[in-house]
Write a structure and sequence with these properties.
Shape: rod-shaped
Biased composition (Basic and acidic residues): 300-310
Region (Disordered): 300-323
Structural class: mainly alpha
Number of helices: 13
Number of domains: 3
Distance between the termini: 145 Å
Largest sheet: 3 strands, antiparallel
Protein name: Exonuclease SbcC
Order of helices and strands: HHHHHHHHHHEEEHEHEHEEE
Length: 656
């Protein structure tokens, strides 16, 4: 049994060697084709990855071209929309400024009319007062002074009568007092005493007679006193009545004088102001001015309404412009990214083409996906046919053929030594060999298929790894671009830099414009930091008016001062004072000025040179009257050989 298996093994090995010899003979017959297929397999295996990547890059370059064309078109449209929105914003802001100007003008006219109305009302009050005073003067009697003089005369007369009556009363009272004293004294005289009146001795009869006479005398003096007292009382009453009348007339005279003085004073005020004293005319003027003021109020309200509408529309257009700016920035970034990717892919494409053989280098630009698929199919077929193993076997056949011949001889000798009863029949050995060969071929086919799939998976994995790396790099670049665009965009660093520059320039400009205007003008930025962005929007304040006004509302000389100050400030800011300004050139900046303006500008320019210590102030002008104000210059004169510069100098107003 062991001999049978040994003989069967030997026969199987001999059949295998014979089969290998037949295969080697077949390969030798197909040697040229195997070599060509192996060369093609090696070439395809070497170039197809680069060709495949090149075709992908070609497709991406086409996509990049389409993206660049599309982004360029969209960018142009977005820029046009942005410019249109910016123009609309400028127009609407101009309209708003014009409406503001109209509203301010109407407000000034209203204020002027209100002041005129107030003045006319005050004048009307004066006119009414003058008319009232005039009526009062007409109501006062014209003979008031005569009556006052008569009343004063009566007071003086009644005063004299009162003093005379008083004196008479005093004298009568004195006499009465003396008589009463004598009567009392006589009552104490005794009978037989010497009489003080006649010197005779006093008797009863004499005493009775003297007492009667003294009583009569006392009664007479008392009657006289009462009469004089009555006269004095009557004179006093008359004096009081005359004094009262005089005082009343004096009060009326004083009131008349006050009214007359007030009348003349107020009428003088009206005359000095050149105002009509007619109240009816003044009332008509007040009504007319009131109607005009109401009309200007309505015009100002309409202008403010139009301004608000224009500002609202400008805000809408500003939002549109900002959206367009954002769109432009996005499209610019996309266009830049697409251009960068195109350049990167084009560089990679050139690198891959340089690695390819010249024949493939010429073919790749014209290849299609179908061509690549055919080449990949050929590569898969060659790989499936195990062309590399065939070529290896073909190269080994010459050496191994001798080994197989020697082994075959040895096997024949070994088979001859096997006993006859232990030998296996040739058909049985061939059948076994065939079955074994089929199983070996099936195993090799499975092995080659697995190797092919493994190579495909390795290719896919390598491509996936490459694409992942590219995606990560591109994603990082995209994030970096987005972050840089946000940091360096119009709303971040650019805006901060522009705002900082504007503030510095305005600060420098104010140093100059205050000197040029002798402290009358001050420049400031029109927009707030958080307001709508406008490049270098300025407004100006006057010393006598704290309300800022736009530059467009300045006079020609004021605009010139502001323009020169801003130009010098920009120069100072640009140089950062690394080197101070030494020269200024002004080319034809005086065409809009009249004679007075030219004279003022000449003074301002000399002041400018002194304020900034300029070594040179160069002016270009065609106005001889203006040029004549400067001592040194060059006159350009045309000649046969071209334009000639002729230097001139003026001394005492004469050119030398």
């Amino acid at each position: 049994m062991a001999a049978e298996f040994s003989q069967r093994d030997l026969e199987g090995e001999r059949a295998c060697i014979e089969r290998q010899l037949r295969e080697a003979a077949a390969r030798a017959a197909e040697g040229e084709q195997i070599r060509e297929n192996h060369q093609r397999f090696e070439e395809l295996e070497r170039v197809l990855p680069s060709v495949s990547e090149s075709l992908v890059l070609c497709a991406r370059l086409v996509e990049h071209d389409a993206d660049i064309t599309r982004f360029s078109s969209e960018l142009a449209a977005a820029m046009a929309a942005r410019d249109s929105a910016a123009a609309a914003v400028a127009d609407l802001r101009g309209r708003a400024t014009a409406c503001e100007g109209r509203a301010q003008n109407a407000g000034r006219e209203t204020e002027r009319l209100r002041e005129r109305i107030d003045r006319d009302r005050r004048s009307l009050a004066l006119a009414d007062e003058v008319a009232t005073l005039e009526r009062k003067l007409r109501d006062i009697p014209t003979d008031l002074d005569v009556r006052l003089a008569a009343a004063e005369q009566s007071v003086r007369e009644y005063g004299e009568q009162q003093r005379a009556a008083g004196e008479r009363r005093s004298a009568a009272a004195g006499l009465l007092k003396a008589a009463e004293k004598r009567r009392r004294d006589f009552d104490s005289v005794t009978i037989g005493a010497e009489c003080s009146r006649c010197g005779q001795p006093v008797s009863e009869e004499h005493a009775r007679r003297e007492r009667a006479e003294l009583d009569d005398e006392v009664q007479c003096h008392r009657t006289e006193r009462d009469a004089t007292t009555h006269d004095e009382t009557t004179a006093t009453a008359a004096l009081t009545a005359a004094t009262t009348e005089r005082d009343q007339l004096a009060n009326v005279v004083r009131e008349r004088n006050r009214v007359r003085d007030r009348f003349h004073d107020q009428r003088g005020v009206l005359a000095a102001q050149g105002i009509c004293a007619d109240a009816a005319v003044l009332r008509a003027e007040i009504e007319e001015h009131t109607r005009q003021a109401e009309g200007f109020d309505r015009a100002a309200a309409d202008a403010r309404g139009e301004k608000q509408e224009a500002e609202a529309a400008a805000a809408g257009q500003e939002a549109t412009r900002e959206q367009a700016d954002a769109r432009v920035a996005t499209l610019t970034l996309r266009l830049t990214t697409a251009t960068t990717r195109q350049a990167t892919d084009a560089g990679r494409m050139d690198t891959l083409l340089d690695l390819l053989p010249s024949a493939w280098r010429d073919r790749v630009p014209a290849m299609t996906d179908a061509d690549l698929h055919r080449e990949l199919t050929d590569l898969d077929q060659l790989r499936t046919s195990d062309i590399r193993a065939q070529f290896l076997k073909l190269t080994e056949d010459a050496t191994r053929r001798n080994e197989w011949g020697l082994r075959l001889t040895a096997l024949d000798s070994a088979i001859e030594q096997v006993p006859t009863e232990a030998r296996c029949s040739v058909p049985s050995a061939e059948s076994l060999l065939k079955t074994t060969g089929e199983r070996l071929a099936s195993a090799k086919a499975d092995h080659q298929s697995a190797l092919g799939r493994n190579e495909q998976f390795r290719g896919h994995a390598e491509r996936r790894r490459t694409l992942d790396e590219q995606h990560r790099a591109l994603d990082l670049d995209c994030r970096l671009h987005d972050e840089l665009a946000d940091l360096l965009g119009a709303q971040r660093l650019q805006r901060d830099l522009v705002r900082t520059a504007e503030r510095e320039i305005v600060r420098y400009a104010n140093d100059t414009v205050r000197n040029l205007s002798r402290g009358d003008l001050t420049i400031e930025l029109d927009d707030a930091d958080d307001g709508p962005d406008r490049a270098f929007a300025l407004r100006v304040r006057r010393a006598e008016n704290p309300t800022p006004i736009g530059v467009v509302f300045l006079s020609g000389s004021q605009k010139f001062r502001v323009a020169v100050a801003v130009a010098l400030a920009i120069g100072r800011f640009a140089s950062r004072q690394a080197r101070p300004l030494e020269s200024v050139i002004i080319d034809e900046g005086f065409g809009s000025l009249d004679r007075d303006g030219l004279q003022a500008m000449g003074d301002e320019l000399r002041n400018l040179q002194q304020c900034h210590s300029l070594r040179r102030l160069i002016l270009v002008s065609h106005q001889e009257e203006f040029v004549a104000r400067f001592p040194v210059g060059y006159r350009l004169e045309p000649g046969d050989g071209g334009t000639t510069a002729v230097r001139f100098r003026r001394e005492c107003g004469a050119e030398v």
